[in-house]
């Protein structure tokens, strides 16, 4: 298959055109975007094709179909829902309710020349008028004048008793429709006074509509018939033909008596309408992935915006049985993001892995693309030394060697039984929960990627996993957290189950604390006894928590459409919000390399954020000399019930931490464990190893690592 990966020539941030590339949103600064994503809209003019990749407008020259040339790229604020061409302009509607006018008179240097805000669902051009479907029930159909793009002016509106989401126009007749099946014809001969001339209803759900000359086409979804209506007389609009295609058409283009349509599957069909009363399907072409969202025609190609697969170029003439379509993979809706050195890796719903060069964070550049999974969604992407570990729903595990970060290759793979749901990495093991209610581990150090069964009956769907000190914590959909002791993998033990008041979405461990994200709260548990956590606090955040990421004493939470929040965990029981950024679509997963935050947005691409508060907080810095172990002062000190014990390691290694009284007796100790280099902290709740509150007095913290010992004094006041 001939797949072209084209280096983007121009990055242009529309929403920041007047203020530069950085955008602040409560201490979170957007410093870069890599806006690849789903492809859902396309238009063509000659050999030049305009299509979206998430929040990107991509302009390509297909005059040489073997080597399509990317002319320009425009990055908008939100996912591009629709684009249309008008003279030397591209009109763009985004999910963030922006209506943008891009001047393309200089095709390699597009410029934003107009902008408006409207909550539209679909749009089409008619002369210099932009006809729009809106979400507003009072102004469901609107007409805008684009003759002056610097002043987008509303001409008129027409109220309907439903909100249309599809629109088409031919001559002076407009067809609008809603998904449940209602549709209306509107006469705009006098654009100042649009007139509703006919309304109808299609049984079942409606998918696609089109108007050409005196014909209207309406495609069903639940009942995938293809209806042809005669609209030559607006007063007597009637059906003249019905064609059963066994599939719903999303997009249609009519040319030279031939109707081209893309269906909800992976097929483009040609319908002969020389005799509209007797439509005949001539032929069809299949394409490999995604579903056809929109069509555009050039002299030689049928261009298909194919959702997850990106832009496809199919020849208009019958290519024969050996035909393989020209594919361009601009990206897909993102699931996960991981950083390795100066490279950022993403994986999307189509199994497309993308490598992004972050040498210049303000202008990230895609340098690598590879379709790793086939028709399977990823459930996890993790870094293990110099390897990228990917798990999919039903296409197994793939491991990519990052020896050459810009050209990673799949070095190991293995099929997995069942349908996998979620996974996490613990040392050299990947723990996987599947929809067959099974929990198993994969040994990454074995050449055969050995499968180790753990539990044959998990007892419910698992939303998230995390492992700490060989104890596995599973966030379950049926409203609890299960704890599995995995010290002996041959005999794992399910030892505990936490509360069942609210569905658990995600889970993370930070030092001696377990953080569980739920529908509207974050629950914090003390892990002093890791097999029997005690609930310490419940924080009402008022929005669903979809992902939690932790680094040092900072926590980032993702909330889908609710954006990205950064918290300081200096007091791990009472996180303090120090940053926020409102992503323009659905924030799904995050990677921390503080002060930078990398967010995978489901349809908008990668956000590269920075929070300067991370480096400005006093307790976030340390004056330790290179190669020196440092035990920081306890905070607070003196303390009443609890205090924070923080330390900095120059290199990774085993750490021994304990608390002693004035007689030198050990009153509290933590199991020796390995820590990475950098800053860490542990919470002491003022209790002994037996769980008893110790008395007021002077105590000493003793830290030992790499043959170095450090002591600090603290005072407990009851």
Question: What topology emerges from the helices and strands here?
Answer:
Blueprint: E1 3-4, E2 23-25, E3 28-34, E4 42-45, E5 48-53, E6 56-61, E7 69-75, E8 80-86, E9 89-94, E10 98-103, E11 111-117, E12 120-126, E13 129-134, E14 141-145, E15 153-158, E16 166-170, E17 173-177, E18 182-187, E19 195-201, E20 206-212, E21 215-220, E22 225-230, E23 238-244, E24 249-255, E25 258-263, E26 267-272, E27 280-286, E28 294-297, E29 301-305, E30 311-315, E31 326-328, E32 334-340, E33 343-348, E34 352-357, E35 365-371, E36 378-384, E37 387-392, E38 397-401, E39 409-414, E40 420-426, E41 429-434, E42 439-443, E43 451-455, E44 462-468, E45 471-476, E46 481-485, E47 493-497, E48 504-510, E49 513-518, E50 521-526, E51 534-540, E52 547-551, E53 554-558, E54 564-568, E55 576-581, E56 587-593, E57 596-601, E58 605-610, H1 613-616, E59 630-631, E60 643-649, E61 653-660, E62 666-675, E63 678-684, E64 697-705, E65 708-716
Characterize the structure shown:
The chain has a 5-stranded mixed β-sheet with strand order 1-31-30-29-28, with no helix packed on it. It has a 5-stranded antiparallel β-sheet with strand order 2-3-58-57-56, with no helix packed on it. Among the domains are: 1-34 and 38-117 and 325-330, 7 Propeller (Methylamine Dehydrogenase, Chain H); 334-458 and 532-618, Neuraminidase (6 Propeller); 624-716, Macroglobulin (MG2) domain (Immunoglobulin-like). Helix content is 1%, strand content 54%. The radius of gyration is 29 Å and the shape is elongated. By secondary structure, the protein is mostly beta strands. A hairpin with a 7-residue loop joins strand 42 (439-443) and strand 43.
